[in-house]
Every structure is written in C-alpha cells, then in structure tokens.
Design brief:
Layout lengths: L1 H4 L2 E6 L6 E5 L1 H18 L5 E6 L5 H16 L3 E7 L8 H14 L4 E3 L4 E3 L2 E8 L37
Parallel strand pairs: 3-4
Antiparallel strand pairs: 1-2, 4-7, 5-7, 6-7
Length: 168
C-alpha cells in the first residue's frame, strides 16, 4: 500500500503485539519534528546569572549603587550571585562581610530570596539571590505621534508654452 502511494512504511511501536506501522512521508515527518523542537527551544526561558562583587569595607554610595543594580537584575528575572572579596588581613574580619551580605538580603526582601546562608569559597563569601516573582515585561517604547499632515499647497500656475515660429 505504501509503494502504491509513493510513501514510506514506518514502524511506530515495534514492541506492541502486533507491531504498529504507519504509512507516511518520512522526510516531511522529520521536518515537522525539527520545527516543533525549534519552536520549543525558542519559547524556552533562559535564566541567566549575574554576579556583583563587593568588599567588606564598601562605601555607602558604592553599596547603594550595587544594590540598585541587584534589584534591577531581580526585577528582570535574573539570578544574582553576590560576592564579598577579602584581601590580606581582612580575612580576620569575616563578620564585616556577613554584615554586608545580610544588608543586601534585607534590602532585596520583596524582590528576591536568598538560597541559604552566606558561605565562604576561598577568599569570597557568597550568597545566591533568586527572583520571587516572574519578570515584568519592560514597557514598550512609545509610538511616535503622527505628524500633522502638511497643508496641500496649490500648484503654481504653470504658463502654457506658446508656439514659437520656426524659421528655416
């Protein structure tokens, strides 16, 4: 039957009793599967991770600036890794890093939550913040107002050419 229709005989379920086969155009079937997979990948939400680095003795302005960036990342739906880097003798004062990270967690309370307590990884103390709710789409750029139509100017009266006598 498949040869008569110039199609392929495809075994769908070989384990079934009796085995199940379909008559179809296998090339077209593969193409449709690839299109479905491509659409599924296109609709997939990729969650990126952002990292913000701080120091234990960070200045207030710098701290505020970085917290504002963390908040905007969380609003956009990104995960944020907040790191405090210790140098030299600062390793003796790990409490300062914990204070900085706990302030960040407190200020980002409504937007994100911490995945556990701050933990040391070498010279870095890190926490991971994940967004609580779905990202809100950015407002679409406002469409430009249409310009008022220019008034049609009356066409200037074009004089009709007068015949010129030709001399030979």
């Amino acid at each position: 039957m498949a040869e008569e229709r110039l199609l392929d005989l495809v075994e769908v379920a070989p384990q079934a009793s009796p085995p199940v086969c379909r008559i179809l155009d296998y090339g077209k079937y593969r193409y449709q599967l690839q299109k479905k997979e491509k659409d599924a990948r296109k609709k997939q939400k990729v969650q990126t991770m952002k990292e913000i680095k701080m120091r234990p003795k960070i200045d207030e302005h710098d701290y505020d600036f970085k917290v504002r960036a963390i908040k905007s990342f969380l609003e956009d739906g990104h995960r944020v890794k907040v790191s405090v880097f210790f140098r030299g003798r600062e390793m003796a004062f790990l409490g300062k890093g914990t204070e900085v990270l706990s302030r960040v967690i407190a200020e980002c309370e409504g937007l994100g939550k911490s995945e556990g307590d701050p933990r040391m990884e070498g010279r870095y103390m890190r926490i991971m913040l994940t967004p609580i709710n779905q990202p809100q789409p950015k407002s679409a750029p406002k469409a430009e107002k249409p310009k008022p139509a220019e008034k049609a100017k009356p066409a200037a009266a074009v004089p009709t050419p007068t015949p010129v006598p030709v001399t030979e």
